[in-house]
């Protein structure tokens, strides 16, 4: 695996580290930015409490070595921080055999996160965030197989108008942080879904040049390296921001 700078076998099981300083993205910004452009700012965050409760954002992902999974969990934290919106984690079905996964040194998957076996469940979501590792600069086969299984929803345009975004993992800086999300937009276009990039709403953290950072205007991201690199505090802060941002956008679309 690891095509195009994608994921590579991990030398140890992923540890789910949480950010020790989620506000560190604002330190030492190389450009001058005011307080309104920090990573904590989200659109429409002053919405009234009369917004419809229990809006659901499905966070659907594929993770082989744990990098995308950790981003997904952190994104859920951001979604859940917005009143009236809940993030729900799902895995896509695995297509590789247990024998192959063992040879690739892939850790066992967390059984507490269910597999989304019935794509009809997607109709219940108010928005989506899809996460996946790269393979030659585009999404992994497992995630592509999941999208391929949504043909009936596509024929009936059941997902048309629903907002969606992406988050990714690559092995190297040139491995597809942008192209992996960019090439996935075609899936949304055929469904009539609304692509929601984060742009530069993360503020000063998007301009940091003093450390390696995954992520782009298309969405959050992490560099996996040889599989043992842990997501940085800045990468996790960007993931949490994406959850907050998407939740705020969904809330605004449902309750203008």
Summarize the structure.
With 256 residues, this protein is of the alpha/beta class.
What do these coordinates show?
- This protein is of the alpha/beta class.
- The chain is built from 7 helices and 7 strands; from the N terminus they run βαβαββααβααββα.
- Strand 3 (127-135) and strand 4 (138-139) form a beta hairpin.
- Strands 1, 2, 3, 4, 5, 6 and 7 form a 7-stranded mixed sheet that branches.
- It has a single domain, classed as Flavodoxin domain (Rossmann fold, 3-Layer(aba) Sandwich).
- The longest helix is centred in the last third of the chain and has 22 residues, at 233-254.
Share of residues in helices: 25-40%
The CATH superfamily title: Flavodoxin domain
| End-to-end gap | 44 Å
CATH fold type: Rossmann fold
Question: Gyration radius, to the nearest Å?
Answer: 17 Å
- Could you state the order of secondary-structure elements as H and E? EHEHEEHHEHHEEH
In total, how many domains does the architecture comprise?
Answer: 1
Q: Report the CATH architecture.
A: 3-Layer(aba) Sandwich
Mean pLDDT over the residues:
81
Which blocks of ≥5 consecutive residues have pLDDT under 50?
Answer: 1-49
Amount of beta strand? 5-15%
Count of helical stretches: 7
CATH class: Alpha Beta
* Global shape: globular
Structural class computed from helices and strand pairing: alpha/beta
Largest sheet, strands/sense/barrel: 7 strands, mixed
The number of E-state strands comes to 7
